[in-house]
């Protein structure tokens, strides 16, 4: 158990360092170059962002093998949302990478993750600061729906490029005579995205109530 706890601490530390670097880089670039820094956000931090998101897939494995007690479905949905939008939508269309919505999306993701991984690291050591606990379970409630709106907007912005270039669209030869038009799949995914947002938001409220209830606050203070 000590070994697993140490492993999870190292994992959280790696994620914290990655997201902190991204967040700090974005802030410094914006203060230095202003609005001009927004257009090339993906080019300056996209590699680290992709590495952090790929690493987050391990969190699903952590839940499956029982070393993380988080609920599987909400975490699975959150991770797959990011993977699909980052790798399928943004990474595959260079024209989308320079849009301001990418900067907004990265800002929301990293703000949430810096707080979350800070809380996780301290909790592995049995340290609970009430302001940080409150921030971790409260900040996600307004910011997660905003990030979903940004994801939806990024998908909408990408649709004309998927239509023009035919990326991921497949037309099977005879005798199948069947085609897969990827923009239709993205439009259907938008519906799934917003249905998932309702479910995950409800779960976030439940987690907040469980961790910030009067009894839990007293126990952590003591």
From TrEMBL:
The chain crosses the membrane at residues 7-30, 42-65, 127-144, 181-200. It comes from the Eukaryota. The keyword Methyltransferase does not apply. Pfam families: PTPLA. GO terms for biological process: fatty acid elongation; sphingolipid biosynthetic process; very long-chain fatty acid biosynthetic process. It is a multi-pass membrane protein. GO terms for cellular component: endoplasmic reticulum membrane. One of its GO terms (molecular function) is very-long-chain (3R)-3-hydroxyacyl-CoA dehydratase activity. InterPro entries: Tyr_Pase-like_PTPLA. The keyword Transmembrane helix applies. It is found in: Endoplasmic reticulum membrane; Membrane. Pathway: Lipid metabolism; fatty acid biosynthesis. Belongs to the very long-chain fatty acids dehydratase HACD family. PANTHER family: VERY-LONG-CHAIN (3R)-3-HYDROXYACYL-COA DEHYDRATASE, VERY-LONG-CHAIN (3R)-3-HYDROXYACYL-COA DEHYDRATASE 4. Catalyzes the third of the four reactions of the long-chain fatty acids elongation cycle. This endoplasmic reticulum-bound enzymatic process, allows the addition of two carbons to the chain of long- and very long-chain fatty acids/VLCFAs per cycle. This enzyme catalyzes the dehydration of the 3-hydroxyacyl-CoA intermediate into trans-2,3-enoyl-CoA, within each cycle of fatty acid elongation. Thereby, it participates to the production of VLCFAs of different chain lengths that are involved in multiple biological processes as precursors of membrane lipids and lipid mediators. This is Very-long-chain (3R)-3-hydroxyacyl-CoA dehydratase. It comes from Pardalotus punctatus.
């Amino acid at each position: 158990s000590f070994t697993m706890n140490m492993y999870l601490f190292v994992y959280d530390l790696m994620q914290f360092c990655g997201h902190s670097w991204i967040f700090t880089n974005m802030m410094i670039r914006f203060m230095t170059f202003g609005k001009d820094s927004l257009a090339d956000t993906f080019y300056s931090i996209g590699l680290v962002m992709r590495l952090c998101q790929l690493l987050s897939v391990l969190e699903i494995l952590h839940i499956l093998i029982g070393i993380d007690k988080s609920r599987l479905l909400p975490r699975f949905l959150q991770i797959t949302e990011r993977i699909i939008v980052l790798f399928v939508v943004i990474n595959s269309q260079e024209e989308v990478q320079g849009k301001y919505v990418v900067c907004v999306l990265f800002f929301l993701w990293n703000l949430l993750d810096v707080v979350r991984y800070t809380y996780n690291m301290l909790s592995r050591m049995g340290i609970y600061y009430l302001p940080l606990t409150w921030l971790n379970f409260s900040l996600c409630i307004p910011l997660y729906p905003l990030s979903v709106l940004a994801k939806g907007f990024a998908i909408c912005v990408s649709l004309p490029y998927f239509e023009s270039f035919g990326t991921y669209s497949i037309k099977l030869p005879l005798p199948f005579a069947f085609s897969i038009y990827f923009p239709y799949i993205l439009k259907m995914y938008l519906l799934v995205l917003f249905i998932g947002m309702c479910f995950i938001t409800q779960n976030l409220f439940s987690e907040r109530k469980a961790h910030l209830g009067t009894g839990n606050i007293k126990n952590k203070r003591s």
